[in-house]
Q: What sequence folds into this?
């Protein structure tokens, strides 16, 4: 399975927790956190109707250089929601 995504350089007034809180509030009906670590979040898409596992992953830079990578599976629903999340983040944390 391929991957679709983008890299976002965010403002230093944000951190991993504030970004995840923003996403939880704005996308609470669409996503839940499935797995997390210090630099990684895997978000499960709720009401997923496609075959397989739709997901969106967030990778925060280990060097704390205010870089976030957003990746999704290549199915239509994941990519569509991934684009919404990327646009939302670019408008709110950059």
A:
């Amino acid at each position: 399975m391929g991957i679709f995504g983008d890299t976002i350089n965010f403002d230093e007034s944000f951190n991993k927790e504030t970004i995840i809180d923003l996403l939880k509030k704005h996308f609470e009906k669409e996503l839940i956190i499935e797995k997390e670590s210090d630099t990684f979040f895997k978000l499960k898409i709720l009401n997923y109707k496609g075959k397989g596992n739709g997901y969106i992953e967030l990778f925060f830079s280990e060097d704390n250089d205010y870089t976030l990578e957003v990746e999704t599976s290549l199915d239509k629903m994941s990519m569509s929601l991934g684009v919404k999340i990327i646009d939302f983040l670019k408008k709110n944390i950059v």
Helices lie at 16-26, 76-92. Residues 3 and 73 are 5 Å apart (CA to CA).
